[in-house]
Specification:
About 60% of the residues lie in helices and about 10% in strands. The protein is α+β, with helices and mostly antiparallel strands. A hairpin with a 6-residue loop joins strand 3 and strand 4. The longest helix has about 50 residues, at about 450-500. It is elongated and about 140 Å long.
C-alpha cells in the first residue's frame, strides 16, 4: 500500500512549473511563427487585403483601389499577384458582376501593357502609374457608357477623378505594400512611408463599410482601434494624423461618416497626450472624444451606439499584445522602442569595435611575448652549448693530430676541459693574457700548450664578436618587446574606454537648468557627458551673446557651487550674430597650474640653436617640460634635438608610458644613421592633480627646485640617447608644493660660468639669491648671470626653462545656489 501511494504521490511532487512556462512560451512562439508564415510568407494577407479593396468605394460609386493594388503587388511580389487578383475579383463580386468583370479586364489589360513597355523602356516602374491612370480612366468611361448609353460631362469628370485617384493610389501602394508583406524589416519608417501606410490601412478598412454586428458598425470599431494603436505607439502627432487621414477617407467613402473624422482626429490627439497613462490613458482619451463629439453632433441613441463601438475598440486594443505594438514602434522614429533599437545597434557596433581593438591588443601582447628574452635556464644551457662549440673548434685545430689525444680527452676529460675553460676565461678578462700559475700547470698537462693557447686566443676574438652581436640582438628584441607591450596596453585601455557607456544624467541636467534659470540667466539646453570628480564635462547652449562673459563670470561659478568643485570654461563658440545660439564647454579645473618662462641663446649670438625645448599639456592631466641638446651646434644639432622632442611629444600624447617612449626614441636615434649624432633629453612630467613630478634625465645636466630659501638638486646618471641601443632609464620622483620653482637648463648654462670650480654650488647660490618668483624673470636672470660671468661671450647653446607650481584658484568666486548643491550625488 505504501509503495502504491509513493508511486502516485512522487510524480506529483516533481512538477516543474518553470518548464511549463517555457513550454507555453515555446508554443506561443510557434503559433506566432505559423501565423506570420501563413499571412506574410505565403501571402494570404494579400488575399484578404485584395478582397477588402475590391469592394471599397468612394463617393458611393468609384472603385479606384483595385487596379493600383494589383499593379503594386505585381511589381513588388510578382508570385503573389494571382492571390491579389482573386481577392480583388471576389471583393468586387460582392458589389456586382459588372465590377468583378471590370476589375478582371483592367488587370488583364495592365499585364499586356506592362509587357509592352517592358520591351522598349527600362524605367517601367515610373510609367506604371501613368498606365494605371489611363486604364482606370478608360475603364470608368466604358462602364459609364454601358450603364447610361452615352457620355456626359459629369460622367467624364468622375472618370477623370477615378483615374487620378488610381494614379495617386499606385504611388501610395508601391510605398506602403512592402511594409505589410516583408516579414523582417530593420529600417526606420520615413514620414512619407508612415502617411502612405496610414492611407493604405484606411483604404482597406473602407472595404468594411456597410458591415454591422447587432447594429454596431465594423468600420467605426476598426478605425478607432487603428487610432488607439498608433496613438499608444507614436504619441499625439502620429495619432492625430491617423485620425485625420482615416476620417477623411471614410468621409469620402460615405458622406454620413463626415463627423467621424472629427472624432478620430480628436481621439488621436487626446490619446497621444495621455500616452503616459499607458493603454488606460489612451483608451480614456478615446472615451472623452466620443462623449464630446457625440453630444455635440448626435442624439442620445446614436451616442449610446458610438460608446458601444468605442468600448469594443478599447477591448480589442487592451487585448493587443505588447510584443506587437513594440515591434511596430521599433520602426517609427521618436518612440522609446526606436531609440532603444538604435542604442542597441550602436552598442553592438561599439562592442564589435572594442572587441576588434582588444584582439589587436592581444596580438601585440603575443608579439611582445615572442620577442621577450628566454628564461634563465635556457640562457645557461645555450651558453654551455656555445662554450662546448668554442672548445671543440680549438680541439679540432690542435688535439686531433696529437699522440696524447686519448690520454687527455678519454682518460682526463674533465681536467683538460677545465684547464681550457680557465684559459679562455682569463684571456677574456685580461685581454689575451693568462696567469703564470695557470700557464705553468697547463704546460705540465699539455705537450702542445703554446699551440693550444694561441688557438684559444684566435678563436676568442670570433667568440667575443659573436657574443656581442648576440647581445645586441637580444637588446633589440627586448626593446621591440617593450614597444609592442606599450602599444598593447594603450589599445587595451582604448578598448575599455570604448565599452564605457555614457551615463544618462537627465535629473542632473534638469536641476542645473532650473538652478541657472532661477538665478535669472536664460539658457537653452544642458548636456552632461560626465560628472566624475575631477573629470566633469558639460555643454551648455545659450540663446544669445552679449559679449560680457556670462559663461566665465556667472555660469562657471554657479556650476562650481552646484557640483562641489572648481569648474572653468574650457571652450566657447560664440555666434557671429547677436540673436543666434552660442555654445560653451565646461570642464573640471586642475588642482594645480603651471606657469612657465624660457630664455635661450645660440652659440656666438647666432640665430639657430642646437638646443630645443617644449612644454606639452597632455590630455591625461599631466604637464610635460622637456629640453633636448643635440650634439654640437648649428642647424644639424637643432634638427636632431627638435626631432627628438617631436617624437617624444607624439609618443606621449598617444598614451605610452614615459620610459617606453624614451627607449623608443633612443632606438630610433641609434639605428637611424651610422653617424655619431647624439641627443640629450631632460624631461619632467608634472601631475596637475597632486603636483607629483617625475624626472627622466638622459645625458642631461641637473635640475633644481627652489622652495622658499631652500634649493634642491635633481640629478640622474644616464648616457645621451643614440650611443647605446639599450639602457635603463633612471626615474627620479619628487613631490612639488604650491609656490615651488622648477628650473631646468642645458649644459651650456650649467657649465657656462667661467672660473668656477663647482658649478653646482655656484648655480644653487645664484638661484637662492633670486628675489623674484616670476618664471620668465627667473629664466632671464639666470641666463644673464651666466653670460656676465663669461664677459658677454656665448660659447655654447644655452637654454633655461622655468616653471612655477601654484594652486589653481579660479578668477571668479563660486556663486552659491540655494537648494541645488551636490547635483552629482
Amino acid at each position: 500500500m505504501e509503495k502504491v501511494e509513493r508511486d502516485i504521490i512522487d510524480p506529483i511532487g516533481e512538477v516543474d512549473f518553470g518548464k511549463s512556462r517555457d513550454s507555453f512560451s515555446s508554443i506561443l512562439h510557434k503559433f506566432n511563427t505559423k501565423l506570420e508564415n501563413f499571412f506574410l510568407v505565403k501571402g494570404y494577407l494579400i488575399l484578404i487585403i485584395g478582397f477588402l479593396l475590391g469592394r471599397a468605394l468612394i463617393l458611393g460609386q468609384l472603385t479606384p483601389f483595385a487596379l493600383p493594388f494589383f499593379a503594386a503587388v505585381y511589381l513588388s511580389r510578382k508570385d503573389k499577384a494571382p492571390l491579389a487578383l482573386i481577392g480583388l475579383i471576389a471583393g468586387a463580386a460582392t458589389l456586382g458582376i459588372t465590377e468583378a468583370a471590370t476589375n478582371f479586364a483592367l488587370s488583364f489589360l495592365f499585364l499586356i501593357s506592362y509587357k509592352i513597355i517592358l520591351n522598349w523602356k527600362s524605367k517601367e516602374q515610373q510609367l506604371v502609374p501613368v498606365f494605371v491612370f489611363g486604364l482606370v480612366f478608360l475603364g470608368s468611361l466604358a462602364k459609364t457608357y454601358l450603364l447610361t448609353n452615352g457620355f456626359t460631362l459629369y460622367g467624364g469628370m468622375l472618370s477623370f477623378v477615378e483615374g487620378s485617384l488610381g494614379y495617386i493610389l499606385t504611388l501610395i501602394f508601391l510605398q506602403s505594400l512592402p511594409l505589410l508583406t516583408v516579414n523582417k524589416r530593420r529600417q526606420a519608417l520615413k514620414t512619407e512611408e508612415i502617411v502612405c501606410l496610414i492611407i493604405m490601412l484606411a483604404s482597406i478598412m473602407t472595404g468594411t463599410i456597410g458591415w454591422a454586428v447587432y447594429g454596431l458598425s465594423i468600420e467605426h470599431i476598426m478605425s478607432r482601434y487603428l487610432v488607439l494603436v498608433f496613438s499608444f505607439i507614436a504619441g499625439a502627432t502620429i495619432g492625430s494624423t491617423v485620425g485625420v487621414v482615416t476620417g477623411l477617407i471614410f468621409s469620402l467613402a460615405s458622406i454620413s461618416s463626415f463627423y467621424h473624422m472629427s472624432l478620430l482626429a480628436f481621439s488621436g490627439l487626446l490619446g497621444g497626450l495621455l500616452k503616459e497613462g499607458k493603454k488606460i490613458g489612451v483608451a480614456l482619451g478615446l472615451f472623452i472624444a466620443t462623449l464630446l463629439i457625440g453630444m455635440y453632433g448626435e442624439g442620445g441613441g446614436v451616442l449610446s451606439v458610438s460608446l458601444m463601438e468605442t468600448t469594443i475598440a478599447v477591448f480589442l486594443f487592451l487585448l493587443t499584445p505588447r510584443s506587437l505594438t513594440s515591434r511596430i514602434a521599433k520602426h517609427i522614429p521618436g518612440t522609446t522602442e526606436y531609440s532603444q533599437e538604435q542604442q542597441q545597434y550602436m552598442r553592438k557596433m561599439r562592442d564589435v569595435t572594442a572587441q576588434r581593438v582588444s584582439q589587436f591588443s592581444n596580438v601585440f601582447q603575443a608579439l611582445s611575448n615572442s620577442f621577450s628574452s628566454p628564461n634563465i635556464s635556457e640562457m645557461m644551457e645555450e651558453e654551455d652549448n656555445e662554450l662546448d662549440y668554442f672548445l671543440s673548434n680549438v680541439t679540432e685545430k690542435t688535439c686531433q693530430t696529437c699522440f696524447r689525444k686519448e690520454h687527455c680527452w678519454a682518460r682526463n676529460f674533465n681536467t683538460t676541459y677545465d684547464y681550457m675553460k680557465d684559459i679562455m676565461t682569463e684571456m677574456a678578462d685580461t685581454g689575451g693574457n693568462i696567469s703564470s700559475n695557470l700557464s705553468r700547470d697547463w704546460d705540465k698537462h699539455c705537450t702542445r700548450s703554446k699551440k693550444v693557447t694561441d688557438a684559444i686566443h684566435q678563436e676568442l676574438a670570433l667568440y667575443q664578436a659573436n657574443q656581442k652581436l648576440k647581445k645586441q640582438v637580444q637588446e633589440s628584441r627586448k626593446l621591440v618587446a617593450d614597444q609592442l607591450l606599450g602599444v598593447s596596453e594603450v589599445m587595451g585601455d582604448f578598448a575599455k574606454e570604448i565599452q564605457r557607456e555614457r551615463e544618462n544624467h537627465y535629473k542632473q541636467e534638469e536641476l542645473i537648468l532650473e538652478a541657472i534659470q532661477e538665478f535669472g540667466i536664460h539658457i537653452e539646453n544642458v548636456e552632461i557627458y560626465s560628472l566624475e570628480q575631477g573629470n566633469v564635462d558639460i555643454d551648455i547652449t545659450i540663446p544669445y551673446n552679449t559679449g560680457y562673459g556670462e559663461c566665465e563670470k556667472l555660469i562657471a561659478p554657479m556650476l562650481s557651487d552646484i557640483l562641489g568643485e572648481t569648474i572653468i570654461v574650457n571652450k566657447e563658440e560664440v555666434s557671429e550674430y547677436s540673436n543666434d545660439y552660442s555654445h560653451a564647454t565646461f570642464r573640471s579645473a586642475k588642482a594645480y597650474t603651471v606657469e612657465t618662462g624660457v630664455a635661450h641663446a645660440a652659440k656666438d649670438g647666432g640665430f639657430i640653436s642646437g638646443d630645443s625645448y617644449s612644454t606639452i599639456e597632455l590630455g591625461l592631466g599631466k604637464y610635460a617640460m622637456a629640453i633636448s641638446d643635440g650634439m654640437g651646434n648649428g642647424k644639424r644639432a637643432h634638427v636632431e634635438s627638435e626631432e627628438t622632442l617631436q617624437l617624444l611629444q607624439k609618443i606621449l600624447q598617444s598614451g605610452i608610458e614615459e620610459q617606453v617612449a624614451i627607449k623608443s626614441i633612443n632606438s630610433i636615434l641609434s639605428l637611424r644613421t651610422t653617424d655619431e649624432i647624439f641627443s640629450t633629453l631632460d624631461l619632467a612630467m608634472i601631475d596637475l592633480q597632486n603636483a607629483a613630478v617625475k624626472f627622466l634625465k638622459i645625458g642631461s645636466t641637473p635640475s633644481f627646485i627652489k622652495r622658499g630659501s631652500k634649493v634642491m638638486k635633481i640629478q640622474a646618471s644616464n648616457l645621451p640617447m643614440g650611443i647605446l641601443q639599450e639602457f635603463d632609464v633612471d626615474v627620479v620622483s619628487e613631490q612639488l608644493k604650491a609656490g615651488d620653482l622648477l628650473i631646468m637648463m642645458s649644459d651650456g648654462v650649467f657649465e657656462g660660468p667661467k672660473h668656477v670650480e663647482n658649478f653646482e654650488i655656484w648655480m644653487k647660490r645664484k638661484i637662492k639669491e633670486l628675489k623674484t618668483e616670476k618664471p620668465q624673470e627667473v629664466a632671464d636672470l639666470i641666463m644673464e648671470e651666466v653670460i656676465r660671468s663669461r664677459l658677454g661671450l656665448i660659447e655654447d647653446d644655452m637654454t633655461v626653462l622655468v616653471a612655477k607650481i601654484d594652486h589653481n584658484i579660479p578668477k571668479w568666486a563660486s556663486i552659491p545656489v540655494k537648494g541645488f548643491k551636490q547635483v552629482a550625488n
